[in-house]
Specification:
The protein has one helix and no strands. With 40 residues, the chain is mainly α.
């Protein structure tokens, strides 16, 4: 087991997951804003 490679890859994976959560949150925010703007 290459622990040093795992520790080197962890920040990269963290940035990837953070990006996924940010994009998902932005999509949810845009959809809810559009829903409020277009509802009667």
């Amino acid at each position: 087991m290459h622990v040093d490679l795992l520790l080197e890859a962890l920040p990269i994976m963290g940035y990837g997951y953070l990006g996924i959560f940010i994009v998902t949150g932005a999509i949810i925010a845009v959809v809810s804003i559009l829903k409020k703007l277009t509802s009667r």
